[in-house]
Specification:
It comes from Mycolicibacterium arenosum. It holds the Pfam family GDP_Man_Dehyd. Keywords: Lyase, NAD. By secondary structure, the chain is α/β, with parallel strands linked by helices. The chain contains eleven helices and 13 strands. The strands form four sheets. The protein has a seven-stranded parallel sheet, with helices on both faces. Strands 7-10 form a two-stranded parallel sheet. β1, α1 and β2 form a beta-alpha-beta unit. It is globular, with a radius of gyration of 19 Å. Bound molecules: nicotinamide-adenine-dinucleotide (NAD). Nicotinamide-adenine-dinucleotide binds next to α1, α4 and β5.
């Protein structure tokens, strides 16, 4: 199989490429990535000899068409992804997430190539903290931020290209990922690298907000299940029953790093901060037989902490810039 992976130099995409090269020798991978601040060649260094990396933008229709025409399938990860950046400047989110997805859709339509579109549970908005209900594929779209609304727009484009043009596509909406190669702007790597660089960890508001954590490798195994056996036109929710408050995650990071679990700063909350995300992954489990392998959050978190300890050369160069942005936002 010739597989085109957009955004393959970012966090989830790079982990996807690593595991694909390791586990599927019959797959020839081409990565298309603009290498924005969030993507780096270094994330693909361990597989540099095994994949083709094309530096380019998913809004470049001619380039995308050429690469799609050479492929049997596309897994579309590329997006602007950081909610705080979206609040500060939404324009790149419109361009990459909406026009970029449109460009990919037009290329797979023209070339009749199978597409899997990677999306987020944030398209559903949030749930009350005290409720028991969870997101399903039928939950109404209700995005809160410029990030989640552009991802929602992209999902709707995919759905309509399936219906109107018969494009062979699937969608997955996943909960919050953790693992190696995640940018230090994101919650878990930010706290780990704050401790490693002698900064104080920072918690938004009271930390009551709940996220449903999944290890990036479990997400990527689910993406492969959907790509190979998912029903065309279907949406699958990916989650690993990993609900935890941000406060609980903060305390776990500090405990695993041998720090006082209360030794952090509370900072001003993010505007419109979603309260709770929770995924019902029944369709994926019951129909496609997927189950997460990283079921012990503390073990996955400890391994992630160890990866950041051992790979300062990867994250060190981005840390000061990321913290400067947070300082400007007062967070
Ligand atoms: N991180 C999560 O917890 C999470 C959860 C659910 C879904 N997702 C989705 O998974 C996908 C990947 O997320 P991530 O966390 O790896 O993001 P990331 O920000 O770490 O990586 C995004 C990658 O896309 C590339 N990119 C951005 N704009 C581009 C453009 N216009 N052209 C080409 N490449 C471009 C970047 O260079 C980067 O390599 C996104 O679609 C995101 O919405 C993420």
């Amino acid at each position: 199989m010739r597989l085109l992976v957009t955004g393959g130099a970012g966090f989830i995409g790079a982990n996807f490429v690593h595991s694909t090269v390791r586990d599927r020798p019959n797959v020839a991978v081409t990565v298309l990535d603009a290498l924005t601040y969030a993507g780096s060649r270094e994330s693909l260094a361990p597989v540099a000899d095994d994949v083709r990396l094309v530096e380019g933008d998913i809004t470049d229709a001619a380039l995308v068409d050429t690469l799609v025409a050479e492929s049997d399938a596309v897994v579309h990860f590329a997006a602007e992804t950081h909610v705080d950046n979206a609040l500060a400047d939404p324009e790149p989110f419109l361009r990459s997430n909406v026009i970029g997805t449109f460009t990919v859709l037009e290329a797979v339509r023209r070339n009749d190539v199978r597409l899997h579109h990677v999306s987020t549970d944030e398209v559903y908005g949030d749930l009350p903290l005290d409720a028991k209900d969870r997101f399903t594929a039928e939950t109404r779209y209700n995005p809160s931020s410029p990030y989640s609304s552009t991802k929602a727009a992209a999902d709707l484009l995919v759905r309509s290209w399936v219906r109107s043009y018969g494009v062979r596509a699937t969608i997955s909406n996943c909960s919050n990922n953790y693992g190696p190669y995640q940018h230090v702007e994101k919650f878990i790597p930010r706290q780990i690298t704050n401790v490693l660089t002698g900064r104080r960890p920072k918690l938004y508001g009271s930390g009551a907000n709940v996220r449903d954590w999944i290890h990036v490798d479990d997400h990527n195994r689910a993406v492969w299940r959907v790509l190979t056996d998912g029903g065309l036109g279907r949406t699958y929710l990916i989650g690993a029953d990993g609900e935890r408050s941000n406060l609980a995650v903060m305390r776990a990071v500090l405990r695993l790093m041998d720090r006082d679990p209360d030794d952090f700063d509370h900072v001003t909350d993010r505007a419109g901060h979603d309260l709770r995300y929770a995924i019902d992954p029944s369709a994926l489990r019951d129909e496609l037989g997927w189950a997460p392998e990283h079921t012990e959050f503390d073990l996955g978190l400890a391994a992630t902490i160890a990866w950041y300890r051992d790979n300062e050369s990867w994250w060190g160069p981005m840390k000061d810039t990321a913290e400067a942005a947070y300082q400007e936002w007062g967070r």
